[in-house]
Structures are given as C-alpha cells and as structure tokens.
Amino acid sequence: MEKITVLLMCSSGMSSTIIKTNMAKAAEEMGIALSVDAKAESAVNVERDILPADIILLAPQVRYIKSDIMNKAPGKPVAVMNMQDYGLGNGKNILRTVLDTLRGHQK
C-alpha cells in the first residue's frame, strides 16, 4: 500500500500534534500507511511542506486560508477538518475525511 502524506495546518501547531497522534493510531488500526506533518500555518513553506503532501488538512480556525493554499498547490486536495472532530481530537473521523477527500479527488 502506498503511504498517504498529510500536511495538517493549524494556528499554533499545538492542538494539531494531538490530532497527528490520534490519526496515526487510527491509521495503524485500519492498516493504512500514513505520514502526518503538523505545522502552524505561519511556519509552512510551499516547496518543503505543501508540494510533497498528498492532501492538506486545515484546522477549523485557519479555514480562511483555504483558497490561498489551493492557489499555492493547484490540483492538490485541501480539506477543512470538522470542528467537533478537531475539538475532540477524533483521529479516526479526521482520517476518514482524508480518505473520502482523496477518493473524491481522484474521480
């Protein structure tokens, strides 16, 4: 199975670390090879972080940068995490969002 590379962006990088850990646990349980890089949106570099990612996930508080990110990485899927899943650190549901978005993007 091919590894899925996710760039997870939030405002400070603190809560996204919890999400990253919970997504890794869910991926392991589901037998999915996953790599998640969690970063504060202010620390993200296009070439280093955005372009290598298969998908960019935005925390709800940075949803306002979605169109900017889409412009920086044309054709790359960008999704905003569900606020409740983000707040609860529900890695399994967030991983489902990633998988659903990638499936929809391939069509």
- What's the total count of β strands? 4
Give the strand line-up of the largest sheet: 2-1-3-4
- Rounded to the nearest angstrom, the distance between the terminal CA atoms is 19 Å
Uncertain stretches of 5 or more adjacent residues: none
Beta fraction? 15-25%
Please give the largest β-sheet: 4 strands, parallel
Overall pLDDT, averaged? 91
Name the shape in a single word.
globular
Order of helices and strands: EHEHEHEHH
Radius of gyration (Å): 12 Å
**Alpha-beta content class:** alpha/beta
* Proportion of residues in helical segments: 40-55%
Please tally the helical runs, counting DSSP H or I stretches of 4 or more residues: 5
Q: What would you say this structure looks like, in words?
A:
With 107 residues, this protein is of the alpha/beta class. It contains 5 helices and 4 strands, in the order E-H-E-H-E-H-E-H-H. The protein has a 4-stranded parallel beta sheet with strand order 2-1-3-4, sandwiched between helices. The longest helix is centred in the first third of the chain and has 16 residues, at 15-30. The radius of gyration is 12 Å and the shape is globular. The relative contact order is 0.22. The mean pLDDT is 91.
